[in-house]
Amino acid sequence: MRQLYAQICKKLRSWLVVLMVLSASSAVAQFYNGSQMEFGKNRVQYEKIDWFFYRFDRFDVYFYLGGNELAEYTMRASDRALRDLEKTFDFTMDKRFQVIIYNKLSEQKQSNIGLTTDEQYNTGGVTKIVGTKLMLYFDGDYKNYEEQLRAGLARVMLDQMMYGGSFKDVIRNNTLLNLPEWYVEGLVSYLSTDWNTEINNEVKDAVMSGRWEKFGELTGKDARYGGHSIWKYVVESYGESVISNILYMTRVSRNADNGFLFVLGVSLKNLAAEWLHYYDNMYYKQETKLALPDEKPLNRVRKRPQPYCALEHPKLSPNGKQLAYVWNDMGKIKVNLRNLETKKKKQKTILRQGYRSYTEQDHSYPIVAWHPSGRLISIITEHKGKIKLFQYDLTTKKRTWRELFNFEKILSVDYSDDGREFVFTAVQMGQSDVFIYNIISNVYEKLTDDKFADRDARFMSKSRKVIFSSDRNNDTIKQFDISILPRNLNHDIFIYDRDSKDQVLRRVTNTPYADEVAPMEYDGNSLSYLSDEKGMFNRYIAKLDSNIAYIDTTIHYNYFTRSRMGTQYPRSILEYDVDTTSGKIAEVIFAKGNYRLTIKDRAEETAAQLSDISRSGFKIKEAEKPKKKRKRTSTLKEDEKPIPRKEEEITKTTPAPTKPRKPGDIDIYDYQFDVDLDTYDEEVEEKKDSPALLSDKPKNRREKKRDEVMARIDSLHKALESIQGMALEMQLPPQRNYDVAFKSEYVVTQLDNAFVNSTYQTFTGGGSFNNPGLNGFFKTGITDILDDYKVVGGFRITGNLNTNEVFVSAQNFKRRLDKQIVFHRQSIEDLISSSTLAQVYTYTLTWKMNWPFSDFSALRGNVLGRNDRTVYKSNSDRNLERPDDLQFTGGLKLEYVFDNTLPMGLNLYRGTRLKIFAEYFQELDKEANTLFVVGVDARNYIKVHRELIWANRLAASTSFGTQKLAYFLGGVDQWIVPEYNNDIPVDFSQNYAFQALATNMRGHPQNIRNGNSFAVINSELRWPIFRYFINRPIKSNFIYNFQIVGFGDIGTAWTGTHPFSDENSLNREEIPQGSVLITVNNRREPIVGGFGVGARTKFLGYFIRVDYAWGVENRKLNDGFWYISLSMDF
């Protein structure tokens, strides 16, 4: 069967080559493709960046000002991740890769890397050269940063394995290997991120709500989390070694299903059923024990699930009567204000920002904080790469903006009790710390200054203390190199005392297997925080307390906490807020595909309402890892674990010293603690009720032991710092300035029936429209590492070699103003008349500029010079003596472009495209010959259900001046066997200089209407029917991309002021009778239409369209037309 398929494909390729040669004689010219307007997105560079890099043996690390420390950290992390992933993949990375570091996400989104602009109508596809670039950004958390690094490296290695190799392998695998989204995204997620509470929450909600029952539909976030859970299930069931075997068999067979079948002996369909059954059973047992909060009408933010939207950052007003929250719709942000005292859900939007985007969103912004008076809302956000403080006065409705300097990113913010200060966690020089910011004087004070990741800072105890969450592994604020010290992968809660300014923090929790985040004051002597100790983020309440440890000349206290669970939900609390004055609590939960906002009173929470639940399965596995010597608990559950502290002087509790594995040799990457302070503390506290605890002897032994431990710790830190300096001196190469170096980006090799140049075709006299035949096309592009500079070149040639094109383009995207210069040479054989054959050489030089307003909108301008030389062939004595014609033309073009479409499949989009343009042409040697063209092309794509898309288009244009542009309405773009209607006359009095097609108008041939103006409306319902119904990965590209289309077109072309005017040439017919010209005035219906059905799919690497349409003319239904074409979109 496989051999038969190969033979059929070989035959079809041969037929296509024959068609190209046979149709070369008709391949004369098509300069303007009717519906194929160039849209495209942009990247906006708000800041100038000068790049540097370090070159290592196997990779390069690129960074800019403020990112040097990140680069040094990346050096070590990359090496570790590369060795780990090579072992997992059983594959050696033989190509050098580039790690490109951005200080924050907003600066990464200004990058040109990955921006494509000119392949939207390429029917044969693009062979992408396998990339080796990793883009990283720092969000203040080194754990997230390392996950990005591993994800990027895993993706590069996966691309190398599946698509890399020789140039021949790249082309073949790009064409034949089609991996499902869940396969790639899920594997990358599995290899980069440990199973955590966020993934567990998403998987649990999707499984229990039935969202993943149709396995083949997984896209976006569902594809990432669903794929992660599938690969996790495979590894737990068959072992980690099967990953490399599955990937190898997938590459060899060029089929994802066969990869699983050949290695596991299980088809992908059966594997999916087993996977879903496994998670369904696991979560069902947990779901029956717990319940979500009551869903009251007030709690529903949206009636229907909106998977691309998120409710974030709820903040209660100081009196608990109002709630501010953020609604994020794929980057289109609203900060809403809701009155909680009324039953109506009416809300007011106080800030709008951003736009919908398919790129990664920064969900940390905007950050909302209420002034203690309740009359002012402060919002910190980013705008054009700058951090801005927006303040809204609820009384005066006044809005003010202020820029905040010296910070790369702000993570959280909270007002002091007097409203004069902020406490916030922010990123500065590659590390996140806690700051106090004086609003009036605009100065700040840094409270913590180390490389541990601090977050969620809040005031407490009347603003005398600051509570925050951190991944620090000790309670002392001191600079350490976290790349050589043991990392605490989870966050704990700490308290900083502003009065004493002591550099030793009070540790509230100490949990190696759980994250504690979002701490805030609960009441006078209690605090609240989120913990995932049970597998989901629930809210805990901790009471701060103390007792007397012993007495000498002063009283010494033990500080401890009593904690209990405040909630027991089966889904994680994503965010929450507590108003201590009113006792109101706001919680956000994602359940059943929708966000729930719960408002309740503090009095509703009692310990008696909660039942005891065990730790989740994956948390148990974490706690049983052999790396830990013993199980360590979180904040104490209804019992006391006092940590002895002096009232006036707090003893430092930095980590215990490490013990070298060999005498005289310290391994800074692998060492263990030989003294565990926590164990020692607990052993002492077990005897706290003994009278000896208050005597001097236990006290002296304890202090002596601590002094000994602290001395050893300081000694070890000095040794580590010395070793680190030596390692950096030996390993860190010289810093280099980035110089532009080019590498291959893509290759296009195909047959099609369109020319490169998108300007207009010279008017041929109205007897026909010059349609090209099939011809060969080759194009290649090179780019620099940062995609700031691109060079593209190519050529097109027909079978008879008389018609060909050569072009080269250079683009500069380095700054906000994008620049491009294009040189184009074209040679075509043109039949001027029945007895005149000419060769036309056209040379065009175009300077293009693009000023982006946002990622989706831009103002573009072109300046062009064009030289046309017509050489008449000597097929008669008259043509032999005829001199060559030379024409020099200059032109200007200005256009506004908007494009926020999101790709949902091949030729499937969601969103809006718009282009408004104006053009001016002037013959340089004939000043009287001028031509003006204005037009609009607007397209909207509506998602009806899943992949079912309703696409609509409105296009119109008109020309005026001493010369005009002739539009021929009818047919489709890149029609393989076009037909031209000679029954509709052309008005030569219009003095046409150029001509163009006006499409689509199916059900009719070309020139069903003509004129210097046109308008058309197209509407299509695009349905990828097999993707819609088949609930499994589809092996065949033909089946996967197959679409059934129902369509309708309506439009007209005319001369005069409007289609129904007497000036319209359609209403006049001139009949020559000898020396007499008879003019007949008649009334025809200027508007024509068409409707029908069609199919689209990808076959042999080409997007092929087949349509059958019935035309409507003069209110009569015409016979049907078949259309076979190679065009994309409309």
Please identify the top-level CATH class of the domain at 2-41 and 742-1125: Mainly Beta
Could you list the spans in which at least 5 consecutive residues all have pLDDT below 50?
A: 11-32, 626-699, 726-730
Task: Report how far the terminal alpha carbons are from each other.
Answer: 36 Å
Summed up, the helix count is 17
Radius of gyration: 35 Å
Strand content: 35-45%
CATH topology assignment of the domain at 2-41 and 742-1125: Porin
Question: What integer is the average pLDDT?
Answer: 80
Class computed from helices, strands and strand pairing: alpha+beta
Helix content: 10-25%
CATH architectural grouping of the domain at 2-41 and 742-1125: Beta Barrel
Q: What best-fitting shape do the alpha-carbon axes yield?
A: elongated
Number of strand segments: 55
Let me know the CATH homologous superfamily of the domain at 2-41 and 742-1125.
membrane protein fhac: a member of the omp85/tpsb transporter family
Biggest β-sheet strands, sense, barrel: 18 strands, antiparallel
